[in-house]
Amino acid sequence: MSDRGHILVWRYTGADLSGVGGRTCRYCAAATEYIERDVTPDGISTEFYEHHKTTDCMLCGWYSWVSFIHNNLNSGYARLRVFDLNAIQLELSELGTFLRRNFSDVYSLAPNRFEALVGDIFRRSGFDPVLTKQTRDGGIDIFLVNRINNRIDAIVQCKRYHAARKVDIGAVQRLAGVALQWSVRKAYLVTTSSVSRDGLASKQAINREGAIELEFVEANDLLRLLQVYNVNMPSLEHLTDDVRRQIIAANRGR
Ligand SMILES: [Zn+2]
Question: What residues does the ion ligand 1 have nearby, CB within 5 Å?
Answer without folding.
Answer: 25, 27-28, 30, 57, 59-60, 62
